[in-house]
Design a protein that fits this description.
The chain has about 200 residues and is mostly helical. It folds into two domains: about 1-60 and about 190-195, no CATH class; about 60-190. It is about 85% helix and about 0% strand. It has six helices and no strands. It has helices spanning about 1-10, 15-20, 20-35, 45-55, 60-120, 125-190. The longest helix has about 60 residues, at about 125-190.
Amino acid sequence: MIIARQKLSSLLPLNFHVLVDPSKLNQLVTLSKMLQNDTTLSAHQLAMLKLIGDIPSLSKDIIEIKELAEQVQKFFVDKRSNCLKARSLLEEHKKSMDKLKTLQAEVNENASSLQGLGDQIINHNARHSISLCSLEMKKTIIVELESSLQEIGNQIRKVLDDIKLTNTRKRDWEVKKKLLTERCNKVLAKFTPLKGFTI
């Protein structure tokens, strides 16, 4: 009985984590039933042990609250993740745009130089070939960058749409979160007499 009392006291005071942990809840109820056979207990102690035995009757409420809490937490985690993803994509988009502008300016400069070299092509054949090769490489990079920018732009639009959608649903989820807290407090309030109870 002494060990049972110590174990029960270690599981008290009740909190919502104890109520949603099946192993701890089962242990709590089993210990309370076992201790009800102790003839040295006062009427108050017996009443408290019987109150602990009533906890499983609220298991449906407790499971629903736990599931709703997980949904609420997931919603706000996903919302934060989308905001961070959008920020990262926008930074990547800006860097790619800056690189694209730099390369485009170089291509324009090289193209202009090539036109001037056209008249002196015999004397500057090697320089012309190198410049032409460099120009073609930069054009290829520009095409790849433009494709990458388009893909990033599509991702940004998708993430921003997701954020817009979550923002429209945020108020509903905040209401759910408030109701969840109230419901959780209501369940725990039923066991207020157990506050400070040790055996």
